[in-house]
Design brief:
With 190 residues, this protein is mainly α. The protein has helices at residues 4-15, 26-37, 44-63, 66-81, 93-115, 134-140, 143-154, 159-166, 170-189. It starts with a helix and ends with a helix.
């Protein structure tokens, strides 16, 4: 079982300060997509290695269930395999993957909502724990804050890029990010 301190440390140090330069470039992404289109099955492996966990984490912020999030991430990869367009038209591949994951997760929730009548929904009781899990982290944050948090921590975007994508100025994003870290620390210390 992961402790709250361990998870918080994982989020705030492992990803937020990761400057190892391991991010896939747009050119690499386009090249891999072209290989996938040409039938090279192993080309998907690099995309999977690079983005699977982040796609799962992004999906989990919406569906709040690990198994469903894993299914959604897998579905996103299937959509990439079946992509019929020119990969050159995907200007920001990370933003494209985020949007694709969010849309797939939202579609999943809509479909599940249509399939299960309200009376058939199970009542979930959460056991109190001293652990801070990903679901708990995202419940602490407003939609804008978790979007900024996911982009910065999980997708390793710079605050400037995340601010631009979210339509806020850099100073605002910086204040929000500092507040996010403070919320997480305060919740952990309770």
């Amino acid at each position: 079982m992961q402790t709250a301190g361990g998870l918080l440390n994982f989020f705030l140090t492992e990803y937020a300060n990761d400057d190892r330069g391991t991010r896939m470039t747009r050119a690499e992404f386009v090249g891999i997509m072209r290989k996938i289109h040409s039938g090279e099955k192993r080309a998907l492996e690099k995309l999977y290695t690079e983005y699977y966990e982040r796609l799962c984490s992004t999906a989990m912020t919406i569906v709040h269930n690990r198994e469903d999030a894993a299914d959604i991430a897998s579905e996103v990869f299937i959509k990439l395999i079946n992509f019929q367009g020119d990969p050159e038209t995907i200007i920001h591949h990370v933003a494209y993957l985020i949007r694709m994951t969010k849309n797939t997760a939202l579609n999943f929730l809509q479909k599940r909502k249509r399939e299960l009548p309200f009376a058939d929904l199970p009542v979930l009781v959460r056991e109190p724990t001293d652990s801070l899990w990903k679901e708990d982290v995202f419940r602490l944050l407003s939609p804008t804050d978790w979007e900024l948090f996911v982009r910065r921590v999980l997708w390793r975007e710079s605050l400037k890029d995340a601010a631009r994508e979210l339509g806020m100025n850099y100073a605002t994003a910086k204040r929000h990010y500092a507040a996010i870290k403070e919320k997480l620390r305060n919740d952990y210390q309770k």
